[in-house]
Structures are given as C-alpha cells and as structure tokens.
Amino acid sequence: MLAAATCVRQVRGQLPWPPLPRARWQEASRKGDTVDAAVELEAIRRVKYAYFRTLDLKQFDELGQLLTVDATAAYEDGRTRLDGRDAIVAWLSEVLGDPGMATEHHGHHPEIELTSESTAEGTWYLQDRVIVLAADLEIGGTAFYEDRYRLTPEGWRIAHTGYTRVFEEHRTHSTLALRSFTSRFA
C-alpha cells in the first residue's frame, strides 16, 4: 500500500487525483495504517463503469447490485426522483428496457473525492445517445453526473446518482436532420 505522504506527490504542479480530506489522513495515521487512495478511487471508477455497461446491455438486475439498497436517483435534471434500489431498477427497466431501443453511455473525466473511510463523492462527464428505430429518432447529448458512493461489505456502491444536462438534441435517425435542440445556456 502507498503511504499517505506518497499519495500527495505532485505531477507538473497538479495532484494526480483529488487529495483525501485531512480527517482521513489523520485517522489513518492514528491507526498506523496507510491509505491507498489509488486503489479506492479505481474501485469507485469501476463501479461507475459497470453502471454504464449494465445500463447499455439492459442488465438492470446486475445494475441494481451496484447500488446501495437505499440508493436515490435524480434523472432528467432532477424531474425524475427515485428512492431505493428497487425503484431505480424498475424505472430504468421501464424507460430503457425496450429491445427496439439502443443506448450508448460514456462516462469520463471523473472527479472523485474520498470524503471518509466509507464515503466518496464524484462528478462524471456523460455523453449519451439513444436510438429508437421504430420512431426514426436519435437523441444525443451531454450531462454531468453527481454521485455519492458508500463502502459496503460487498465493496463500493452507488448511494446516489443523478445528472444535469448540458445539451440534448433530437434528430431523425435515417437522415440526421435536427428536430430539436435544448441547452442549459440558451
């Protein structure tokens, strides 16, 4: 494991990852433990990567295992709010489960901060695309996910997820003609 002091090395004046809160460093020092921030952050990234993979593969039960039982969600700029793993999985299954709908979600540029030994917060940049062939519709856009994570006996899990749209466009899939465009800035 990396010692706490080595986790804060600088690369060209930038931290290689967000620093852990001072309380975590102090707690690790009191225990005589080391905090391996890189391992913890990678475990959290893998949970979110799996969230996007299971979402696009329509593996909603598996996606549910990535959430805490009491997880919450705020989709569609917070217009859709869900409480509990079962409610989130049911809603995603209903909205995205149609086999005639193909989805593509890319989450990248994570900014994750470990806020305690067992909690973390993260922001992810999302690019997504939804294709509904029966409606000759393609929806694409970008958003920022705001997540909270909790360390459980099974590992890191998503305790809250939700996004705020930057822009969304609707196109005719067969011609790519623009039907509508919305942006939080226009």
Keywords:
alpha+beta, Nuclear Transport Factor 2, Chain: A, 7 strands
How many domains, as an integer? Answer: 1
Order of helices and strands: HHHEEHEEEEE
Q: Note the total helix count.
A: 4
| Structural class determined from secondary elements | alpha+beta
Q: Averaging pLDDT over every residue, what do you get? A: 87
CATH architecture: Roll
Distance between the termini: 48 Å
Report strand %. Answer: 35-45%
Can you tell me the overall shape?
globular
Helix content: 25-40%
**Number of DSSP-assigned strands:** 7
Main β-sheet, in a few words? Answer: 7 strands, mixed
CATH class: Alpha Beta
Radius of gyration: 19 Å
CATH topology: Nuclear Transport Factor 2, Chain: A
Can you give a write-up of this model?
The radius of gyration is 19 Å and the shape is globular. The termini are far apart. Mean pLDDT is 87; it is low at 1-22. It has 186 residues and is of the alpha+beta class. The chain is built from four helices and seven strands; from the N terminus they run αααββαβββββ. It has helices at 22-31, 37-56, 60-64, 85-96, and strands at residues 67-75, 80-83, 101-114, 119-132, 137-152, 155-172, 178-183. The chain has one domain (20-183): Nuclear Transport Factor 2, Chain: A (Roll), CATH 3.10.450. Strands 1, 2, 3, 4, 5, 6 and 7 form a seven-stranded mixed beta sheet that branches.
